[in-house]
Write a structure and sequence with these properties.
The protein is α+β, with helices and mostly antiparallel strands and 615 residues long. It contains 17 helices and 22 strands. The protein has three domains: 15-108, OB fold (Dihydrolipoamide Acetyltransferase, E2P) (Beta Barrel); 123-273 and 552-615, Bira Bifunctional Protein, Domain 2 (BirA Bifunctional Protein, domain 2, 2-Layer Sandwich), CATH 3.30.930; 296-436, 2-Layer Sandwich (Gyrase A, domain 2), CATH 3.30.1360.30.
Length: 615
Amino acid sequence: MELMKRTTGCGALRKADAGRTVVLNGWVNRKRDHGGISFINLRDRYGVTQAVIDEDAPAELKAVTAELRNEFCIALEGLVRERPADMVNPGMDTGEIEVLVKRLAILNRCEILPFQIGDESNAGEDLRLKYRYLDLRSAGMQNRIRLRSEVSFAVREWMTGQGFYEIETPTFIRSTPEGARDYLVPSRLYPGKFYALPQSPQLYKQLLMAGGFDKYFQIARCYRDEDARGDRQPEFTQIDIEMSFVDREDVLSMTEGLMGHVFKKTLGFELPAKFRRLTWEEAQERYGSDKPDLRFELPLRDFSPFAETGDFQAFKDALSQGEADRSAKGNSGGGAVKALVLPAALMGGPYSRKQIEELEAQAKIYKAKGMAWMKVAAGPNPALEGGVSRFFAAQGAAIISALEAGPGDLILLVADPRRNIANTALGAVRSKLGRDLKLTGPGPDGKPRFEFVWIVDFPMFEFNSEEKRWEAAHHLFTWPQEKYHDTMEADPGSVKGDLYDLVLNGVELASGSIRIHDPELQKRIFKIAGFDSAEAERRFGFLTEAFKYGAPPHGGIAPGLDRLVMIMAGETTIKEVIAFPKNSFAQSPLDDSPGKIDQKQLDELHLAIKDENKG
């Protein structure tokens, strides 16, 4: 077989190329026969070009053309010519020209396809993943993988321009608790011992700071043995960053610069120089989430003052029980009744009882016992009607004014003795409304919206009620804010860490913190989290040992590359921006992994498989 090597890509030819003889290589995207003339749309990753076999073409060329089917891999040589004015295709970049074929060779034939390849595949997930090499030929996947490559390049370009070194960290490490299960790798040379695949390069990037590399980054592969979902995979990629001699403002400013460069370079999109900021408590109280989608507002409001003076006993009980729990159990949150006003202008008509029940079901998923409602009656005199309005009749005007509600608006209410439940449950309703009412779509100009927000001042610790102990809310190496250093052990629940998350369109894009560099302070954190000195030494001794030798103050952040590209591409799952992802069950239909290994391999590793069927 003669290989005619391409002289140009299928997306490059224009009107100015008329008269050139070119060689194209690619796949048959579409073939059409009109009388004695055949048209072939030839595709590669650069685009599509129309090729023509005229009716006066040699019989041998026509015979080869007759064999062609979609996805045959071919090479052709021909003359570029302008299309007649009435045949110009404005929907193709190459729509002003076509290639008159003189020679054509079939490089490889294609069997019957398991699904049709188009701009986007409508095949099921497992079928797409089983034949991922076919799915990757679609225009959608080609564009998303191209975008991922461009984003990665833009990251490296900006980071190196800012004086950062790209440094690799180990893939085989010691197993350490970081909030999820480790993937373990048995050692053949050391029977009974295991490496772990890193959940993140956290410990090693801190050691790089101790080693004097004050600006580090890495596009790092990370591994977590946890349930897969839209924005998670067993293996994923993050833009890992660490800096020495910095405070929170330095890290946030650096990240804003990085994001600005990436969006400008790859999408031509201008981001604001500074992103909005909310404290963790503000985000929870106003949006019911520490990763709020700010493409729409719909804020939560405190309805507790009206509940206390109203006649609805369920609300009163929630508040009194919350106060009792706060006194007896040290619950700093107490109870709450939260309200969300859904403007009539967004609803497109009155909400039915069924629609309200669907919203209530969403609240119940997040542990709410129920959801009450009422609405503002139409007319010149504001009044409440429907739902629980009769319990607040005397307060109607004050409620409408305080909630800034208008005629036809729907008021949704969630109460709970635990303030965080009331916030989170109504926050979930807010998120559902954002999706249902299409409040997250493009702006008035038709362009996508990218709403960044920093969430800062997170709680340092959270109480594990099952194990009856405090544990790190993020990780064990976060610097507690200075004002809490003297009271940490006495009141861990009040401590705020020097933590920060970057949220984009309701997705947690990055998480980071200023780290501990003082070995004595690190020991105190271990102790609060329930690690005695021996256990802490066993798990983290190599890190705390480094702190004894002049480790500098340092901090960092790790934006998720998969999530970033997902949002930039307008997708809702990272599977659409990873070349070879796992499915929703953490399996790969392509190579049938995870798979069994043979007995010889098990013996070499000194492992035995437990038969669960034998009890």
